[in-house]
Amino acid sequence: MSKLSRSLKFSPRLNQHKSLLRWTLISTCLILSSYLLHSFTNPQDSLTSHHDTAQPRVLQPLPGLPTKKRNKKHDPERWLAEHSDMTHYETGQEWFNDRPKAAIISLVRNEELEGILQSMWQLERRWNRRYRYPWIFFSERAFTEEFRAATRNVTSAETSYHLIPNQHWLPPEHISTSRFHSSLAYLGTLGVGKGHLLSYRNMCRWNSGFFYLHPALAEYDYYWRVEPDVHFFCNIPYDPFRFLRDNEIAYGFNMNILDDARSFASLWRRTREFMDMYPDLVHEDADLEWLVDTYGNGGEYNNCQFFSNFEIGDLNFFRGKANMKYFEWLDSEDVGGFYYERFGDAPVHTLSVALFAGGKDKAWYFRDIGYQHDIARHCPRPEVRSGLCDCEATGLDENFYKLVPMESPQRKPEDSCLRLWLGGEWLEKEDGYDAEVERTLGGDGLRGYVRKEFE
Ligand SMILES: Nc1nc2c(ncn2[C@@H]2O[C@H](COP(=O)(O)OP(=O)(O)O)[C@@H](O)[C@H]2O)c(=O)[nH]1
Ligand SMILES: [Mg+2]
């Protein structure tokens, strides 16, 4: 049989194979292109690893957290176990309607458009794309059309833009301009971060005492504060707002670090005066133990703070009598601490939560939310990730010195701020380690811990 006749003889079968092959190819192409189209239009899905969808990891209870005061009514870890599912909330309208009244809020300037777009894009991709909580922007100056259009474009959630009234932004009348300007010059000379900036004082004051009073937030119960140029490294497979609401938690943070004490020299003294004036406003479960030095200058504020550029909180706590009165005192003619010093909203919120919210049960360490603000960066270890993260794990004490370098003569707490907050076995040192000896030799005495990281 010639080659030709052989090929002719087999040609009908070959043709059958060919058409089968063609169909297989066409359908593969179709499947592939629809997948590609889907992942381009739904960027979140391409970030969702198999372990996120199939087997979400959940936070384990924090070993070492003091249990004596734990509120037995709630079990936040269990809540997370039951609600950490990337697909959980996509199933219907019911969850959408039952969302807490919550908003993502940002105080920002028109000039910071690029920075806020980057923050928004990451938080949308990592989380809000599935939840569609509104973005609410605030500024003392009108937002430009460019700012509005660009920010609207990054989210499918609603956006709104609000002016801050002058009486919430500018120094109150009782502030002496010359004394205020001396403080700007003084803190500027000392090199206290942004101590010379007039606008920074307004900002700290607004974030301490006024954001929660803005009419645009009147109908809301929870807020998540987002700044320009921050980063979110991890997918968040649950709703932190719902988490706070269901577990009756007032305040969520993810960094707890040392602040520059020169910016609020009299804050602790003024706070103690407030506690003396209004003892009834201090919560019976108030927990100041982690904030007050027990060694050296015993009884002084140790300058630890929830780093408030990341915070998720309960607006009703801030609108409550205790917090409002506390702010009024710090802002009063007697104190004027936002202008005569540079009281920051971070230490003010920290002290307020510690004093008036009711113990550690009322605050939550969102250690699974990877986040960066400027040089401070938190990235969870693989063991405590609740979703896929694109970052390298950072150490437990990593950010402690970000605002106050170790070399600074400022008195340091006995343990890093986060360890003090965690308490319990997080403070235990290895046998033979002597912090005093290390300090004498020029170290900081913050070594030798038995528990080095979360597991
Ligand atoms: N509208 C407005 N926003 C401000 C002003 N100053 C600071 N902010 C915002 O307030 C937040 C904190 O300010 P930032 O300079 O980042 O302070 P830092 O994080 O303490 O260094 C950011 O969201 C800023 O965009 C201001 O004068 N006007
Ligand atoms: Mg900032």
TrEMBL record:
One of its GO terms (cellular component) is Golgi apparatus. SUPFAM superfamilies: Nucleotide-diphospho-sugar transferases (SSF53448). The keyword Transferase applies. Keywords: Glycosyltransferase, Transferase. Gene3D superfamilies: Spore Coat Polysaccharide Biosynthesis Protein SpsA, Chain A. Residues 46-76 are annotated as: Disordered. One of its GO terms (molecular function) is alpha-1,2-mannosyltransferase activity. The keyword Transferase applies. GO terms for biological process: cell wall mannoprotein biosynthetic process; protein N-linked glycosylation; protein O-linked glycosylation. Coiled coil: none annotated. It comes from the Eukaryota. PANTHER family: ALPHA-1,2 MANNOSYLTRANSFERASE KTR1 (PTHR31121), MANNOSYLTRANSFERASE KTR4-RELATED (PTHR31121:SF7). Belongs to the glycosyltransferase 15 family. This is Uncharacterized protein. The lineage of its organism: Eukaryota, Fungi, Dikarya, Ascomycota, Pezizomycotina.
